[in-house]
Specification:
three-stranded mixed β-sheet, about 45% helix, alpha/beta, 10 helices, six-stranded mixed β-sheet, globular, about 270 residues
């Protein structure tokens, strides 16, 4: 009998996919099956050109509690007939790292609706999303250092300093302490904190605002923001921006926006 999927994908409204991690009995901890199912769900969104935004959340009381330390332990890393132990572990690490990159580089923006604990790998998933909305009960933590490793894992050391600053990031990474939604809001990690039970609705509102904009503009803004984050100078960033804006004039959406403004209506954007 086939086990139930660990991820669900729903379209509560046209153009917005809600991806839900569904291992509620384990606070949606990252098992190999969950990682594989998340890859598949994101691939599905990437292929569907009608999708304009994604809300990513967890089922039950948690967003994602990181690696499932009870899932298998040492036997998961046992040496295979055609692969060494280090090779098996490295492949698992790459699979998780590639999942983070898939979220970060997805064609459409991803809004994390953090409904509970987001620690370890779950914290990294939230960091790789474009926007984070937290429930009051949300908890965060770069806890890799607490399990005998370092806090340098799946993009954590790259994104966290860029989101909240190097000094705060290092304190969180070196201590591995858990912090609440109020602190996440204060340090700028999340864009909003809402009452429990309302976080998916709040994330959907953000997704709706994004989806209301022209497809080219949202696509280029996400790609460009990722690229200019590492621009070596203001001039390099502006050169990318200049080309993006000039190319955008050929979509016809700028003319449509002007006409819609004159006529007092919402724009009817041209598709890509």
């Amino acid at each position: 009998m086939k086990s139930p999927p660990t991820v669900s994908v729903e379209n509560s409204e046209p153009g917005i996919a809600v991806i839900t991690m569904s291992r509620p009995e384990r606070l949606n901890a990252l098992s190999p099956e969950l990682i594989s199912d998340l890859h598949a769900a994101l691939d599905e969104v990437e292929r569907d050109r009608s999708q304009r935004a994604v809300v990513l959340t967890g089922d039950g009381r948690g967003f994602c509690a990181g690696a499932d330390l009870k899932a298998g332990g040492e036997q998961e890393f046992s040496e295979l007939p055609d692969q060494s132990r280090v090779g098996a572990i490295y492949d698992m690490q790459l699979d998780l790292a590639n999942l983070m990159l898939k979220i970060y580089e997805l064609r459409v923006p991803v809004i994390a609706a953090v409904n509970g604990p987001a620690v370890g790998g779950g914290f990294a998933i939230a960091l790789h999303c474009d926007v984070r909305v937290a429930a009051e009960s949300a908890r965060f933590g770069s806890v890799f250092i607490k399990v005998g490793l370092s806090s340098l894992d799946v993009g954590n050391s790259y994104l966290l300093p860029r989101l909240i600053g190097a000094s705060r990031a290092r304190e969180l990474m070196l201590t591995g302490r858990i912090f609440d939604a109020a602190e996440a809001d204060r340090i700028g990690l999340v864009s909003a904190v809402v009452p429990d039970g309302q976080v998916v609705e709040a994330a959907l509102e953000v997704a709706q605002q994004i989806a209301a904009n022209n497809e080219y503009g949202v696509w280029m803004t996400k790609l460009g923001a990722n690229a200019t984050l590492d621009a070596p100078s203001l001039r390099h960033a502006m050169e990318l921006e200049n080309r993006t804006q000039v190319l955008g004039t050929f979509t016809g959406n700028m003319a449509e926006a002007s006409e819609a403004f004159r006529e007092g209506r919402e724009p009817r954007w041209n598709p890509l």
